[in-house]
Design brief:
- This protein is of the alpha/beta class.
- Among the domains are: about 140 residues, 3-Layer(aba) Sandwich (Rossmann fold), CATH 3.40.50; about 100 residues, no CATH class.
- It has twelve helices and five strands.
- A five-stranded parallel β-sheet has the order 3-2-1-4-5.
- Helix 9 crosses helix 10.
- The N terminus and C terminus are likely disordered.
- Keywords: Coiled coil, Lipid biosynthesis, Lipid metabolism, Nucleotidyltransferase, Phospholipid biosynthesis, Phospholipid metabolism, Transferase.
- Catalyzes the key rate-limiting step in the CDP-choline pathway for phosphatidylcholine biosynthesis.
- GO terms for molecular function: choline-phosphate cytidylyltransferase activity; phosphatidylcholine binding.
- InterPro entries: CCT, Cyt_trans-like, Pcy1-like, Rossmann-like_a/b/a_fold.
């Protein structure tokens, strides 16, 4: 029975940016919708010796056309893909994804070679066979795992596991004295090609580690691994510790430089801001000074106005021409002191003296 979550997973929308699901290209032949029956969606895929097969029913291979049209749910297309799967990475997962999606109804069986077989034909592995089995088990595209898979597929093995098609990249795989170990599979019409993922492989990952060996050795020393566990000599251990200290000093110096640059930048920004403010204030001061003391400034107008007021204040007022003339009262006659009588004089002198006395008294009265 199909898991209840499969329909929800099938309806999930995938982002399309010129490629198929999970980066697969149009050459992969992956339909947009498919029915997926996989135990690996909720739990690890079982091993082949843990799966019961009903041998009472005769096994008849399906053709490629029948597989592409779609088979009944109780008769999925059984696709087999094998490999070493050391340091399981995205290239492995993409290859298995393509194998799983070759046909609308696919049951993917993955064979993993043992350590003994791999070391004899290919070389030493980083992960042991149990770790590689476990990694493949937890790939969501895998329905069944074959442990200790054969290096070359025999008709007996294909019949035992009722395999319809074998999925692998189309590049000839020379090994075990053969130019292509999949040559007889291709001749039998059971080969289904997949595409390799460029830029990622187990050999590439190992090359990175070997190339940057010192970096990773120092990294693991920092994380608590001993020199003996890393197979590092005493001299190299001391060298790595010294390099670590030097790097710390460099980092501190770099941090100080960055902080000093930030400080200088802030000072420059502040100085530029102060200069701009000073220029604005200076222009404002100069404008106010010219407005007050300039050739046509306010001070000149104030001086002119004050000068006019001073001249107006010190200049005498002119009598109006139409003012009426007041008659003066006659001045009193002059009398000698201590005398009640005027001195004797001739009539001529008397008249002249009277007029003089009268004039002087009049002037004194005006003053």
């Amino acid at each position: 029975m199909e898991p209840p979550t499969s329909s929800r997973l099938n309806s999930r929308k995938r982002r399309k940016d010129g490629s198929g699901p999970n980066g697969a290209t149009e050459l992969d032949g992956i339909p947009t919708k498919m029915s997926r029956r996989s135990l690996g969606l909720r739990e690890p895929a079982p091993f082949s010796d843990e799966v019961e097969i009903d041998y009472s029913k005769p096994y008849i291979r399906v053709t490629y056309e029948e597989a592409m049209r779609g088979t009944p749910l109780d008769r999925p297309v059984r696709v087999y893909a094998d490999g070493i799967f050391d340091l399981f990475h995205s290239g492995h997962a993409r290859a298995l994804m393509q194998a799983k999606n070759l046909f609308p109804n696919t049951y993917l069986i993955v064979g993993v070679c043992s350590d003994e077989l791999t070391h004899n034909f290919k070389g030493f592995t980083v992960m042991n066979e149990n770790e590689r089995y476990d990694a493949v088990q937890h790939c969501r595209y895998v329905d069944e795992v074959v442990r200790n898979a054969p290096w070359t597929l025999t008709p007996e093995f294909l019949a035992e596991h009722r395999i319809d098609f074998v999925a692998h990249d189309d590049i000839p795989y020379s090994s075990a004295g053969s130019d292509d170990v999949y040559k007889h599979i291709k001749e039998a019409g059971m080969f289904a090609p997949t595409q390799r993922t460029e830029g990622i492989s187990t050999s590439d990952i190992i090359t990175r580690i070997v190339r940057d060996y010192d970096v990773y050795a120092r990294r693991n020393l920092q994380r608590g691994y001993t020199a003996k566990e890393l197979n590092v000599s005493f001299i190299n251990e001391k060298k790595y510790h010294l390099q670590e200290r030097v790097d710390k000093v460099k980092k501190r110096v770099k941090d100080v430089e960055e902080k000093s640059k930030e400080f200088v930048q802030k000072v420059e920004e502040k100085s530029i801001d102060l200069i701009q403010k000073w220029e604005e204030k200076s222009r404002e001061f100069i404008g106010n000074f010219l407005e007050m003391f300039g050739p046509e400034g306010a001070l000149k107008h104030m001086l002119k106005e004050g000068k006019g007021r001073m001249l107006q204040a010190i200049s005498p007022k002119q009598s109006p021409s139409s003012s009426p003339t007041h008659d003066r009262s006659p001045s009193p006659s002059f009398r000698w002191p201590f005398s009640t009588k005027t001195p004797p004089s001739s009539p001529a002198n008397r008249s002249r003296n009277e007029s003089a006395v009268t004039y002087d008294i009049s002037e004194d009265e005006e003053d």
